[in-house]
Design brief:
alpha/beta; 44% helix
């Protein structure tokens, strides 16, 4: 089964995403922040990382850079509600430049999540 590492400090958002991804047929491992995500990523096989950008401690941008150093073939989807009143116009493109394969601006329809995950997993 395809395993997705979900990194989000917002419990309600993470719970909703976990349920949706499981309904789509994926196994989901949850991390609450970047440091925890790095530990989980190095300890097991993960097919895709889905990370929020704004989290305490190591944020999503730092996580993307660290994952890229560890594994240049890592597949990452970055998501953001914007932070600081921004809808992601600045932060999501930056995440792509750092290595995210796809980005999603919160809130997003679950079908957009499904399509982004499929696209990332199907991209060689």
């Amino acid at each position: 089964m395809t395993k997705i590492l979900l990194v989000d400090d917002d419990d309600s958002c993470a719970e909703m995403l976990t349920k949706a991804l499981a309904a789509f047929g994926y196994e989901v491992e949850r991390a609450h922040n970047g440091q925890e995500a790095l530990r989980l990523y190095t300890a097991q096989t993960v097919d895709l990382v889905l990370t929020d950008l704004f989290m305490p401690g190591m944020d999503g941008m730092e996580l993307i850079m660290e994952l890229e150093k560890l594994d240049p073939s890592v597949r990452i989807i970055a998501m953001s509600g914007g932070g600081l009143g921004d809808s992601g116009a600045v932060f999501l493109p930056t995440a792509e430049r750092l290595g995210a394969v796809k980005t999603l601006a919160k809130p997003f329809p679950l079908e957009s999540l499904r399509a982004a995950v499929r696209e990332c997993l199907d991209t060689p």
